Amino acid sequence: MRWKMLVAAVFGTVVLQGAGPAPAAEPVKLRIGFVVPGADTPFLVLKPDLAKYDGKTYTLDPIHFAGTPPMITALAGGELDIAPLAYSSFALAVVNAGMSDLRIISDNFQDGAPGYYSIEYMVLKDSPIKKIEDLKGKAVASNVEGSAVDMAIRAMVAKHGLRPGRDVTFVEVGFPNMKAELLEKKVDLISAVRPFSADPELRAKARTLFDQRQAIGRSEMIINVAKAGFLTAHRTAVVDFLEDELRAQHWFLDPANHDAAVKLLADYSKHPVAAFQSWAFTKGDFYHDPNGLPDLTALQSNIDLQHKLGFVKASLDVKKYADLALVKEAAARLK
After folding, report:
1. 213/260 Cα distance (integer angstroms)
2. CATH superfamily, region 28-111+219-333
3. What is the pLDDT of residue 292?
4. Whether 147 contacts 232, CB under 8 Å
5. CA distance 173 to 268
């Protein structure tokens, strides 16, 4: 019996030694959407050397979209893992599209925070449009129907007694083409977001009729979301990504790095440094929570208004769709 046990033990040792070390797990590919460089684009895309875990637990695959609504389809079809959805798109996805498995994992940026930038809606300086009511019978440009930028215009005109789509015509125009559409008088009002609203020619020839803060108050403009199942399956990779992203965000928002940060953004977006120097990564820019925590109170208010105006079938309790444990863990690692 002892002889048999000894043979078995030796055999087992040989088998284990022959097997060698277990192969390391492949990094998780994180497909993440974005619309505007310098706004919702991950900071890591601009400065990947700040990533501690990229190539180890995850690899980043940024994918460009014209607006946030198309990301809903991509998420539903499994073609996107993390999406920076506008508050309006998030509600449409959960309420209208029935995607109850979406979870809010972090803040991307907020509009209208005290002391920070708010999206502008601009008309020509010589335009006869002086007040919101003057938009009756006019054409306004938004990037994509159902986006937060689009919803703010609809909310504003509705508050002033105009019926979106009937009293005011909506035209879909990409952000880079907004200025040309306005200057050529193809539309009467445009949605001017950073960095396009800082264009010197636009500011010389146009004026702001209202901003998004006036239309809907403070907004949790863009939130990063993912499916609950994906978060469960790849929690480690997502937390590592959020840690890296927060580290990069802190670097970009540090005044000591301003000139270098602006140069990286200019190079990536293929615009001159002067287009960003005066406002990017300052209080002239959108607000980013330093710990990546979304303002759920503002988000609830945004979605309640969206429902009140009839843009979604029902409101929802945003706290039930938030899983902030991941970003809190990521932020704690940096302290």
Report:
1. 30
2. Periplasmic binding protein-like II (3.40.190.10)
3. 98
4. no
5. 22
Which sequence spans correspond to the domains of the chain?
28-111+219-333, 120-216
What pLDDT, in 10s, does the model give residues 250-305? 999 999 999 999 999 999 989 899 989 999 999 999 999 999 999 999 999 999 98
Residue 202 token pair: 């636009």
**Helix 325-333 / helix 235-253 crossing angle, nearest 10 deg:** 60
Task: Inform me whether the pLDDT recorded for 4 exceeds 60.
Answer: no
Q: Does domain 120-216 have CATH number 3.40.50.300?
A: no
List the Cα angle 89/141/156 in 5-degree steps: 65
**CA-based Rg of the chain, rounded to a whole angstrom?**
24
